[in-house]
Amino acid sequence: MSTTLRRANGELWLDLSGEKTFAAIKRSLAVQINTLDDYMLGAFVCLNVGTKQLTNKQVREIEDILLDHGLHLREIMSCPHQSDAAYPDKPVLEGMPEYGETLLLCRNLRSGQKISSNGNVVILGDINPGAEVVARGNILVMGSLRGIAHAGAGGDETAVVAAFRLNPTQIRIANHITRPPDGEVVTDRDPEVARIRDGKVIIDNLKI
């Protein structure tokens, strides 16, 4: 199966969406990176795996392949079909708008990393302080949100930001911004969702 490799702003973008199995993804990835020039050593790589959802173990395997060639994984893009069982027709969150594109990341975001998407972003991990996620749609963090999250980046005030542990540096929805009070002590609490209500960002318990 043919793949597409392109270079932009010092990063590598590799389209592996046509590969049907994880084994085929690994083979194509190895073939493509073996064609790279030495000056690309240290570059970050973005992979598009199409409708396939990779496990954390598979993501680690890809990271190891890249590290063996002096490369680093920036992100893995996955856009499952809405008809898949894991993506029901109804929104997961009450009142949450739907978008046709969803970016799924199975890792933590470290300080200095920035992820953007024209649809939703789902992160199976944490957004650490100094990291930033920007989405035209909704942002769902299956971990701790301690960095910056900007949902509804195209001006959609119905977008939401949700996290299992909501302790952000900043939350922005459309053009509305909120920050936690200085010196706030955060204890364990239920998952929460931020949304616009009456022109302000408010925090509610997460309803799933």
Describe this structure in words.
The longest helix is centred in the N-terminal third of the chain and has 13 residues, at 56-68. The protein has 2 domains: 1-78, STAS domain (Transcription Regulator spoIIAA); 89-208, Pectate Lyase C-like, CATH 2.160.20. The strands form 3 sheets. The chain has a 6-stranded mixed sheet, with no helix packed on it. It has a 5-stranded mixed sheet with strand order 6-8-10-12-13, with no helix packed on it. It has a 4-stranded mixed sheet with strand order 1-2-3-4, covered by helices on one side. Strand 3, helix 2 (56-68) and strand 4 (72-77) form a beta-alpha-beta unit. Helices cover 12% and strands 35% of the residues. It is mainly beta and 208 residues long.
Write the layout of secondary structure elements.
Layout: E1 4-8, E2 11-15, H1 22-33, E3 44-48, H2 56-68, E4 72-77, E5 102-105, E6 114-117, E7 120-123, E8 132-135, E9 139-145, E10 148-151, E11 161-166, E12 170-173, E13 176-178, E14 192-197, E15 200-205
Parallel strand pairs: 2-3, 3-4, 5-7, 6-8, 7-9, 8-10, 9-11, 10-12
Antiparallel strand pairs: 1-2, 11-14, 12-13, 14-15
Quick summary:
By secondary structure, this protein is mainly β. The chain folds into 2 domains: 1-78, 2-Layer Sandwich (Transcription Regulator spoIIAA); 89-208, Pectate Lyase C-like (3 Solenoid). Helix content is 12%, strand content 35%.
